[in-house]
Amino acid sequence: SLLTGAAKLVVVIAIFLLTFYVISQVFEIKMDANLGHIFVLVYFLLKATKPPRYKCGISKACPEKHFAFKMSSGAANVVGPKICVEDNVLMSGVKNNVGRGINMALVNGNFMFSFFSDVAPFIEFLKTIQDGTIVLMATYDDGATK
């Protein structure tokens, strides 16, 4: 896959240079530039087209007085769930703080995570959550076993 990506980049650069050459010939543009200048130009053009990065990797910036979050549940028992709030990854397989079943993050000015393997303590825990607390839940492996 790395080789395929590198090959695609070489093809894109070659097409860009060929297009630039044809345009300069058609419009009779005279340039005193060496290959180094052309690569610098290509670098800045590629950098200028890079999309901006927003909190938690979402597609656009959140309005004022809103917060950014992104959640994804796990994939079978291979990829763990991920919860990110305001560019802080609260739980993920990489952080190694997720478990099978339902994983929760409570956002109330303080961040925490919790996972349960039995339904009774889970229900009791849900009853203790204060009003105004944001509850984010993501499953891993099989959230419906209990």
TrEMBL record:
> What keyword terms does UniProt attach to this protein?
Disulfide bond, Lectin, Membrane, Secreted, Signal, Transmembrane, Transmembrane helix
Q: Where in the cell is it found?
A: Secreted
Q: Tell me where in this chain the ILEI/PANDER domain is found.
A: 100-145
One GO CC term, this protein = extracellular region
PROSITE patterns (UniProt xref): GG_LECTIN
Q: Which Pfam families did the record assign?
A: ILEI
Segments crossing the lipid bilayer: 6-23
Drop me one GO molecular function for this one. carbohydrate binding
Q: Which PANTHER family match?
A: UNCHARACTERIZED FAM3
What family does the entry list?
Belongs to the FAM3 family.
Designated name of the protein: FAM3C protein
Q: Which gene encodes it?
A: Fam3c
